[in-house]
Design brief:
224 residues; mainly beta; 13-stranded antiparallel β-sheet; 1 helix; 13 strands
Length: 224
């Protein structure tokens, strides 16, 4: 049988190119993303509070409140490890207990505790979802006598806070007052988190009226 060496050479070159291409593709696979949340001891965040008014709902002004937050330690509460965060506003100190649960959600206490409070003995729930992290399908509906709250994750967005650019994942809570309420109340508030940094901006609101206030990240230090 006569072999066409020219065709064989071309075939071998094609195989070499394909092999190189496959190798190159496998080597160029993107690095996995770091964990969404970082609760390492020594992390620090500083927030300023801004508020609007009924008279001027579009303008937010600094209230003078500055919240300095630090991950103080890791402690066990009923056999489960939590990061203990100290919030210092003026001379007032409150504590927040956070952890990442088995679903990758950031969970903790619904309201801050004083140094005298025992989180294991006060009946405070420590499974309140602060943010679902990478769980973009997260949804939760809470129906109470005071109204219904629906929580869901919105697409990532770019925001500017205190002159700095962030890419955040917004968790939006939409509140509706009970049926028959006059007037009906519909409000949305949100918590904006950036991967590995944490809370960047959080919006809160009073149930009645149109007064909102925001906690805005001023500076941070993250321990890797």
């Amino acid at each position: 049988m006569k072999i066409n060496f020219k065709h064989v050479a071309v075939f071998l070159v094609l195989i070499a190119i394909a092999a190189t291409s496959c190798s190159s593709n496998s080597d160029s696979e993107p690095e996995p993303l770091p964990d969404f949340f970082n609760l390492n001891v020594g992390n620090e965040w500083v927030y300023k509070e801004y508020k609007n008014s009924e008279e001027n709902q579009s303008e937010y002004n600094f209230t003078g409140k500055i919240d300095s937050v630090e991950v103080e330690s890791v402690i066990a509460i009923e056999g489960v490890e939590f990061s203990k965060l100290r919030h210092k506003v003026g001379n007032q100190i409150r504590y927040e207990y956070l952890r990442v649960d088995e679903f990758g959600h950031l969970v903790g206490n619904t309201y801050f505790l004083t140094a005298a409070d025992d989180p294991a003995g006060t009946g405070v729930k420590l499974n309140h979802v602060k943010h679902p992290g990478d769980d973009i399908t997260y949804q939760n509906t809470l129906v109470q006598e005071s109204g219904t709250t629906f929580a869901s994750v919105f697409p990532n967005s770019n925001i500017i806070v205190e002159g700095n650019n962030y890419t955040v994942s917004p968790l939006v809570l939409e509140y509706t007052s009970p049926e028959g309420t006059v007037p009906m109340i519909n409000k949305s508030v949100e918590s904006n988190y950036q991967r590995q940094i944490g809370l960047v901006k959080k919006t809160n609101a009073y149930v009645f009226g149109n007064v909102f206030w925001e906690d805005r990240l001023v500076s941070y230090h993250i321990v890797n």
